[in-house]
Automatic annotation (TrEMBL):
Belongs to the FPG family. Coiled coil: none annotated. This is DNA-(apurinic or apyrimidinic site) lyase. The keyword ATP-binding does not apply. One of its GO terms (molecular function) is zinc ion binding. Keywords: DNA damage, DNA repair, DNA-binding, Endonuclease, Glycosidase, Hydrolase, Lyase, Metal-binding, Multifunctional enzyme, Nuclease, Zinc, Zinc-finger. One of its GO terms (biological process) is base-excision repair. It is an enzyme of class 4 (lyase). InterPro entries: FPG_cat, FPG_N, H2TH_FPG, Nei2_N, Ribosomal_uS13-like_H2TH, Znf_DNA_glyclase/AP_lyase. Residues 2-103 form the Formamidopyrimidine-DNA glycosylase catalytic domain. Residues 222-260 form the FPG-type domain. Its EC number is 4.2.99.18.
Length: 268
């Protein structure tokens, strides 16, 4: 599941494969930009911003993509077999003399002026893995709506950019509170820890092929994906429920003993 660390890794792969080279192949398979041709242009850099990827090319253009739940960018040596999915799932192809980057199942793909990047990422809060990271601003953003459940506030990229559903559940477990606790009810000592702990988790995993919050490879996560299994700390059964506003519900995991605060109503 792509989160800030996964997107950073994707940006590094794309940057290493494409930056400083001239594109010899360009194919954007979305109706609005199907006729756009980037061949002959040099790729300047590939920059992550929260969960967004910005591929900048000469001429003042940026290819903006977002992976959401199951999108991915794969890089292949020319002549290597593409194995990221069936051809009908390919949304973008960028190639040079040596390598080809293929974007699969990209729900967001658009070409815009680099000077207009703020239109697609300007709403984001401080990036947990970016140069703009500011823990005080991130915490102030989270507290703007004190009645909002913490899990929902953490997923709102306008507050802080980079946390997805996995880190939401894991961060709440490490703080010892349920994802349904209103942000305003977070004890002061936990609020003081939250921004630094969130950044520590993503920093720890920024170069790891297998994400870990436990410090181990197996089991690598405390609660996420462990429904009906024993909590690693107290052996109580980990629970799972959907959290969100109905249109954007996300499976959420927590330990009813290790984490204090409200729980969803039965049947959620």
């Amino acid at each position: 599941m792509p989160e800030g660390d996964t997107v950073l890794q994707a940006a590094k792969r794309l940057h290493n494969a494409l930056a400083g080279t001239v594109l010899t192949r360009s194919d954007l398979r979305v109706p609005r930009f199907a006729t756009a041709d980037l061949t002959g242009r040099t790729v300047l850099d590939v920059t992550p911003r929260g969960k967004h990827l910005l591929t900048r090319v000469e001429g003042g253009l940026t290819l903006h993509s977002h992976l959401r739940m199951d999108g991915s960018w794969r890089v292949y040596a020319n002549g290597q077999r593409w194995n990221g999915g069936p051809a009908h799932q390919i949304r973008a192809i960028l190639g040079n003399a040596d390598r080809t980057a293929v974007g699969y199942r990209l729900p967001v793909l658009e070409l815009l002026r680099t000077t207009d990047e703020d239109r697609v990422v300007g709403h984001l809060g401080p990036d947990l893995l970016g140069p703009d990271w500011d823990p005080s601003v991130a915490m102030a953003n989270l507290l703007r709506d004190p009645a909002l459940p913490l899990g929902e506030a953490l997923l709102d990229q306008r507050n802080l950019a980079g946390i997805g559903n996995v880190y939401k559940s894991e961060l709440c477990f490490l703080l010892g509170v349920t994802p349904w606790l209103p942000v305003g009810g977070l004890p002061a000592e936990h609020a003081a820890r939250l921004p630094g702990l969130a950044r520590k988790l993503l920093e720890y995993n920024r170069d790891r092929p297998v994400r870990s919050t436990t410090g181990r490879r197996d089991p690598n996560l405390f609660v996420y994906g462990r429904a009906a299994r024993p909590c690693l700390r107290c052996r109580t059964t980990v629970r799972k429920a959907d959290q969100g506003d109905g249109s954007r519900e996300r499976p959420t995991y927590w330990c009813p003993v290790c984490q204090r605060g409200p729980a969803p109503s039965p049947g959620s």
